[in-house]
Design a protein that fits this description.
4-stranded mixed sheet, 332 residues, globular, 8-stranded parallel beta barrel, 15 strands, alpha/beta, 9 helices
């Protein structure tokens, strides 16, 4: 009788080293290690009794000769290789001392996620590709707040202001309008105007699933309410989007996170994190619970509820990719 053995489970700390222009540092693997000459993000195994930040600081010093001083938890991602399972703990490193310099006869290169990979870079490890895709996601996610047809022009003015200020991800979400007129052509027209304005600025617009799903063809993707995501996941149906569109899922507890994973969403929006007038009788999750859910997600997580530009840095320290909200993301 043979005993089935499980593949080794390896915990790794990985540095997403970002310069002020948004470039990320990649390095080739040394010739004497597995997957030689393949490219990846720098980092290494977490030793016994070592925290993730401790391991990452040590590895970055050993690999590229820098001392990381600002490390922000980001994504915990499980990747299954043929002979092992690797738990990848990604931290964004935005400040460091020293100049990245190869210490193990490897090569280094700065790449921008929005641009083609340079020809000088060889094959990239499979677990690195999702990171390059996730880094393209904007940090602020603006929700619409039109209400009715008479509010469209005011909304478009505010949206234009937000786009000027750098917002590049928008959600069209009009529950009050939709409750009164489920298929109102004026609401569809407002969606089209919103998408057109977003595209003029290179921004993306997702359709909230409260609206007719056949409208998603006018948008850049679909944002599923938690119960809509649950329905799709439980019935094993795919979201009605094409491969080029984004899929987002709202999450409030661990089961919502599982549904987002089943549907292979591009990101999740977790909340509400702080007290907010829109949910007066519901207790807020708080940052600690947000962090727990974000680490379970295995994909970028936005914080929503009581968010504003002033909460962005705090959100990042708890593993948020960015923040989501309505009026608060448009500054005066």
């Amino acid at each position: 009788m043979t005993t089935k053995t499980h593949p080794p489970y390896v915990r790794v700390a990985v540095g997403v080293i970002l310069d002020p222009m948004g470039h990320v540092l990649l390095g080739s693997r040394p010739a004497d290690k597995p997957w030689p000459h393949w490219w990846e993000l720098p980092g290494g195994k977490i030793e016994t009794n070592e925290s993730v930040p401790q391991a990452l600081i040590r590895e970055l010093h050993e690999e590229i000769g820098i001392h990381a001083t600002t490390l922000l938890p980001w994504i915990r991602y499980i990747h299954h290789y043929p002979r092992s399972t690797v738990e990848l703990n990604f931290y964004q490193v935005t400040e460091w001392q020293g100049t990245p310099t190869p210490q193990e006869n490897q090569q280094l290169a700065w790449c921008h996620p929005d641009q083609p990979i340079p020809l000088t870079i060889g094959p990239i490890l499979p677990a690195t590709f999702p990171i390059l895709r996730w880094l393209r996601l904007p940090k602020h996610y603006l929700l619409s707040n039109i209400g009715q047809k008479s509010g469209v022009s005011i909304w478009l003015e505010k949206l234009h202001q937000a786009l000027q200020q750098g917002v590049r991800l928008v959600q069209f979400r009009e529950p009050a309008w939709e409750n009164n007129h489920p298929n109102d052509p004026d609401c569809l027209a407002a969606l089209q105007q919103t998408v057109d304005l977003c595209h003029q600025w290179g921004a993306l617009c997702l359709l909230n699933s409260i609206h007719p799903w056949d409208w998603v063809g006018y948008a850049d993707g679909l944002h599923l309410r938690s119960h809509d995501a649950a329905r799709l996941a439980q019935n094993q149906h795919a979201a009605p989007i094409n491969k080029r569109q984004l899929l987002a899922v709202s999450a409030h507890h661990a089961q919502d996170i599982k549904h987002a994973q089943q549907l292979n969403s591009d990101f999740v929006v977790i909340g509400h994190v702080l007290d907010t007038p829109s949910h007066p009788n519901q207790p807020a999750l708080g940052w600690e619970r947000f962090y727990e859910l974000a680490q379970q997600a295995g994909r970028p997580a936005f914080a929503i509820g009581g968010q504003s530009p002033t909460t962005f840095k705090q959100a990042q320290t708890f593993g948020a990719h960015g923040i989501a909200g309505i009026r608060q993301l448009i500054t005066d």
